[in-house]
Predict the 3D structure of the following.
Amino acid sequence: MNPLPPPGTPGYTQALLADDPIWLTIVKVVVVFALLLVMTLFMIWLERRVVGRMQQRPGPNWNGPFGLLQSLADGLKLAFKEDIRPVLADKAVFFIAPVISTIPAFVAFAVIPLGPEVSIFGHHTALQVADLPVGILVVLACSSVGVYGIVLSGWASGSPYPLLGSLRSAAQVISYELALGLSIIAVVLYAGSLSTADIVSAQQNGWYIWLLPVSFIVFAISMVGETNRAPFDLPEAESELVGGFHTEYSSLKFALFFLAEYVNMVTLSAVATTLFLGGWMAPWPLSLIPGVNSGWLPVVWFISKMFVFLFVYIWLRGTLPRQRYDQFMRLGWKILIPVSLVWIVAVATLRVLRNQYGTISAPVVLMVGAVVLVVAIVVALMLPDRAADDDDAGSEPPVVGTYPVPPLDLTVPTSPPKRRRAVSRGPAPETAAVGSGQKEDA
Amino acid sequence: MTTTIGEAIGFWILGPVALAGGLGMVFSRNAVHSALWLVLTMLSLGVIYMLQAAPFLGFTQIIVYTGAIMMLFVFVLMMVGRDASDSVVEVLRGQRVAAAVLGIGLAGLMIGAVAQSVGVPLAAGAPSGSNVGGLGLLVFQRYLLAFELTSALIITGAVGAMVYTFAGRAKSKAITQKERVAERLRGPLEKFGSRSGPGVFATADSVATPALLPDGSVAPESLSAIIEATARERLGHATELSRPGDEHDTAAHSHHAERGEIQGSQT
Amino acid sequence: MQGSAGLTAYVPLIVMFVLAGGFALFSVTAAPYIGPRRYNRAKLDTYECGIEPSPQPVVGGGRVPVAYYLTAMLFILFDIEMVFLYPFVINIDALGLFGLVEIVLFIGTVAFAYAYVWRRGGLDWT
């Protein structure tokens, strides 16, 4: 066996994990697998409860304490539903597509470090299933394989809505995967390693969210696009495409797509935590207490940080309307990608200059700023002009036939105080929110 | 460097899988199935690279080839249509002969290259440091020119894609949502979308609910051919007598429009 | 970290792959046997919101907008760029100023292609 490098240096976790006996590996994999299943069930419940609160209704509260067993009941119910395969479907591909979309979702989570070195049954190991020297690429590779599940499910259904949904989804996921991959680059630059464990240990003195805010914002936006979640849930836009790529799926096959979506959410939240929020390290005021970053306690920090992201996912869904497809692609291709590229160049330049000249003096920064400004102006000049809108033409109220048409600039009067009070008083009965975006009443 | 046991096991599992993928790609009748077999080959190649202690190359293979290039193939195949299959007509004259000659030539070259490399000792170990690090130093120092030429390749790719997809398309101004709404409000009445007549009465709006004619009998055009719940034995036998059954199918084209009118008139 | 020591790092991934794959395959295979089977021809037809399905899927048998092809093509180009950036940032300290000039040239060239596609309207979805 290789001698262990000293703790905290790059490659330490890899060497530590290489000594794991096979039973320990299997135990870890099974535990992570179970954790992801439970997280999915819990997330569905949490999402319905939180969105329910946001829409002034209680959400599921009948099965189990606080309705906690609702998603379990739903899952079991799905298993006992009829499995339908449309006649026009491509048999083999229709069968294999849910499997293709599920496997990468689970595999990607394996590289996430959940905690530092601990002792399990007298065995020293890291709380991580696998640590590869190229760990973060596993996440990208898994997401690029996972797209196939969506594309193939839509194609194999032999039906227009799923096909449209799958095409949209594929174009969306590949576009946002670019932004995702580019935003990781700055983190890799500072950590000096692609291994997830090394990235976490490199954040000992400061989380990358403070050092690399632009990367973090790009990552946070593109991870929502990557998981097909609101406001970017165009592949399964209920109002346009019925259910999107999984319209023709039922029973456990549908459940697998659902599972994959939620596991992907959990995985990307975990990746964001690892890259930008210091992984399992304790947040600032708590990190002053000695011993808080060792043993099993860091798992708590990790899970709590992960839930911050997961809550934001739910919050976005409860708040924002769905984007139009062209707006969405414009955001990805015309904003996120150029911003990432410019940011990478800026960070790399700063890094090299600092290495060359020790500290950076003010003139250097000014010079760099001037260069960036010139580049920005040149790029701005290259952009196509937009024709001026003719706004005035739309001011007079249109009259069409005998139909009464409201004027375009109609201002809706505020509702009388009595009714406003009635609305804000207490949670309304659940039936009041029919069609308000509760897509998983499955 | 000798082959370790893990590497050998991996090779003997993944090699046949990659080969099967290649054969499946050649022999599949459906174009999308062919592409999927090729994806399988690419994936197993990626894993074989990882087994050869080249993890970066392996994951790059999966990200770029499986995730990007094969996705392009799948898009193109979907663009062609799902029932497209190989045509047996030879479009280019002498194409098969040329393909056979070139194929045999390529096989000969590869066999020669592999045979030559058997006796040659492998490169002396991996470069120092991590795999990605060593690779980066090689790419950015020793193979600098090749690397910069890649960007020329990328430009060519972008221009080519633009020429193919945008050939002959005039650059038109995109219509904004606001303009669309204004146009719809000012446009002719038909653009308002569906309008239900005043006082329409229907017990349900499912396709399974047949429309009634003004005299109260079931409109045969509104009976679905495929929904058993509205089977003719239940609802349509009166109409079966009055109308021959095959007329139902010929009427299917104007189905929706007629049904809409019938339901509208049913006040 | 060569040879077998390097390979053991993949063992957990393989175990995870097998476990997730087994679970998914089991679910997919078991689904038809667990659930009820009540034959109904309408159920097996394409779902189009209650109207009778069009004889051939509108897009399945027809065409897909060419913009998707362009998106996939651009994705390949940027993916290649991204893949080159990873080894660069790992080695940024070793490569120094020379490497920086090199990568800025590379990114600039790709940005040129990007600007061309943008100006020609290749990034617009109408």
Remarks:
- The longest strand of chain A covers residues 113-120.
- The CA atoms of residues 135 and 265 of chain A lie 18 Å apart.
- The beta strands of chain A are 113-120, 123-128.
